[in-house]
What does this fold into?
Amino acid sequence: MADRDDPFGANDPPARRGSLVIVGTGILTVGQMTTEAVAWIKRADKVLYLVADPIAEGMVRQLNPAGAQSLVDTYVLEKDRTDAYGGMVDRVLACLRAGDLTCAAFYGHPGVFVSPAHEMIRRARAEGFAARMLPGISAEDCLFADLGVDPGIHGCQSFEATDFVLNRRSVDTSSAVVLWQIGVFGFATHKQGNYALPAMPILIEKLERIYGAQHPMYLYDAAVLPGCQPIIRQIVASQLISEPLSAAYTLYIPPARAAEPDMDAYNRMIALNQAYQEENKE
It folds into this structure.
């Protein structure tokens, strides 16, 4: 197994000298950045990072003063966010081609709503570089803890809010639903500050069609800075038009009905288990 001083291990050397690891800094960076992520950030020749607050930025720069470079300048106001994502990928690939051990660090979990991270790995491997991603703590992980939700009880469906509407996503209302990026619904461009969200009535219509007008939902924003509390506000769908929403908000929708037991499947399961036990008696 690879150790942190030789992350790829003696038996798994990079195909070329340049190599890539992608890490997450967690939501609350102080305390949620894993020891493995810290070790990679320290060891890398270049650390290209995109984080959500100055404390996280300061921590990354403190861990690797010589190699840390922000990716925030890839964003351009009123330009499509996918343009910025392409710029991030190009920056990382340039470091790999120069032969650098490169670490890309992203806010939260690096594989959750971070499409450029997945594209970096795909392109790096296609060009013969070793590349891997390490897990981090996501906003959904924080949501489960702060709202006291266990996804193992009722199940949990997860959708990006705009995708939820545009691609006719259907839901099982006996299970919980998490809608990501509720605060940028209908927008693909980058802005500073809160979005106006003129298309929000379309999402409200769909939610009320599924859940009715009075089903409780929860706006959630995880705590980012030490000493701060998460934002949790109970609302109904119609209030999405009037509630102040930041780009970081997530919407949690609890189940609206009980699940429907499949008694035929239950009886078959019992019979199969009993038959197995009978056949395997000593």
Notes: Strands lie at 19-24, 46-50, 68-70, 101-106, 130-133, 156-160, 176-180, 217-221, 231-235, 250-253.
